[in-house]
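Reply to dn_fold:

You asked what the input looked like. This is it:
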Amino acid sequence: MKKRLLAIIVLLIILVGCTGKMQNGNGDIMSISDQNDVKEYIPPKMEGEISISTMNEDEYLTIAAQKFMSKYPNVKVIINSYMGTEDEDDTGVSKVDSMAVENYRNHLNTKIMTGKVEDIIFTGLLPVQKYINIGAFEDLSKFINLTPEINSDNYFMNVLEAPKDENGKIHTLPIRCALSIVSFNKQLVTDSNKKMDDGMTKISFEKAAEFAQQLVDNTNRKNTFLSLEEGAHFFNRAFNDYRNEFIDMGNKKANITDQYVTLLNHVKDLEEKGYFDTENSIDFYNMEYYFAFGIDFDMQAAFYSLLPDTYVYAMPLSDANGNVYLNPNSDIGISSTSKNKELAWEFVKFLLSDEVQSLPSFYGLGVNKKGLDASVERILKMYNDGNNEKVSKEAYKSLLEKWIMEINAYDTSDPIITDFVWEESKKFFDGKQSAEEAARILQAKIDKYFNE
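and this is what came back:
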């Protein structure tokens, strides 16, 4: 106990004298010393009960809870899963339908608003910013700053700090490093004789689409399309380039301008000119076909971009301002109404540890560096076993780490507003309303939602 107290005191001295700085997604520089003063964190007695709210009880979470209770026999961990145990896909994301998600949101909303929510909440499917604004989540930065083992030697701190707001507060923590990757078809790049800018390490969807259009326009290959996605899906990705201009989550304002209308019409024009396979003409099993680019998940994109005879060029997707966003699907928060915040933090720390993030059932890329190493080895074996050509662990890990280090921003988009955007854009592409009508209705929907 004396050693632990001494470590805390030493850490406090270091923090006071620290001049290191970090950059948030807006490009603002914040010093650690700029954050609010924090009280000394005294680890709790490891006894009591903590509860967890999650849509699905993933296997690694079940195992982690069992291990934690084995370490601390006087602690009980209760996992309240809305849909029970469910398998994840290869990206580490559980598969759920939209109706179940909506029901879960309503269920959890009632618990949050009545102050009867669990101690720990998996926030990936929630309108997180809405709940942060009403103070539903505890600020975790004070716990992080007083936990010596959470440092750049052990963790990807740019990922853990990606959710930090302009006041230096962190209300949700990522369990995984997840980001979207843009992949271009190498054969079409070769055909077109087009080149990316030297030194480019990331690209916005708009720039990627412009480059991909050049690839389609400069090849003689048949059955060549811009993307596998149809126009409505394509538009939603393009919308995200300028999401922060259209929607100000912090001030609860929407500005669905002429730029939105122009973007809708531009993608519709691409669709009408045959850049998408709107006729479903591709026989995927019996004909050659080519897509100029697509959005892939990190682990798969890294493997295929490193094959000796690779057929893709890949890099992280950014927004129009060059920010690379962390996917928030695997984030967690601690309820501000919890009576066991310190005990809940001890379990959160355990989820971040290499002991948990090295588990075979932990899918995806962990924020813990040792955990990432274990994941890389396991994932790479799966890909290498299914291919004649092989990729080395060193190259695979190095590329993934390079991509992870590009993360500098946090996706605060509200999934309910995302649904609104999809609904109105889909009606436009289905010919049920004009671009101007879509803009007007979307503006009204978001305004109403913000005022509820």
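The domain at 180-325+411-451 is CATH 3.40.190.10 (D-Maltodextrin-Binding Protein; domain 2).
Hope that clears it up.
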